[in-house]
Every structure is written in structure tokens, then in C-alpha cells.
Amino acid sequence: MEIEHFFTCPYCWQEISMILDVSVDEQTYIEDCEVCCRPIQIGYTAEDFELQDFWAESIEQ
Asked: What digits encode the pLDDT tens for the residues 25-55?
């Protein structure tokens, strides 16, 4: 099951959305911001097909 989740880019501060697969209990991956194209490390946990925790952070220093 997939859900759309909105969050703020840690670089450009624009609200963006990503599709998350909540049938997987835990995921961490890197995806580029759709606005500024910089890499964001995305992580989340899900339980019973519901999002429990979500984080998005910059990977550039």
C-alpha cells in the first residue's frame, strides 16, 4: 500500500511530497528534492499500513 506524504525540504524549505510504501515496516533511502534537486536521506517506519515515524535530512555538509 502506498501513501503520499508531504514534508519540507531540508535545503530549499519548499513543501514537497513523496510516495511511501507503508507495506514495508522500515525504509531508509536517498532521493533528490523535486524542487532543488539536492539529495535528501529519507527514513520512515510503518505499522499496520500506517506511517508511524518519518524523517528527511540533508546529506551534504
From this structure: 999 999 999 999 999 999 999 999 999 999 9
Which contacts qualify for 36-41: CB closer than 8 Å, 24 or more apart?
36/9, 36/11, 36/12, 38/9, 38/11, 38/12, 40/9, 40/10, 40/11
Give the residue from 6, 32, 35 showing the smallest Cα distance to 19. 6
Question: What is the dihedral angle through the alpha carbons of 25, 32, 18, 50, rounded to the nearest 10 degrees?
Answer: 20
- Give the pLDDT score at 60: 76
Record the cell numbers describing residue 49, joined without a space.
499500513
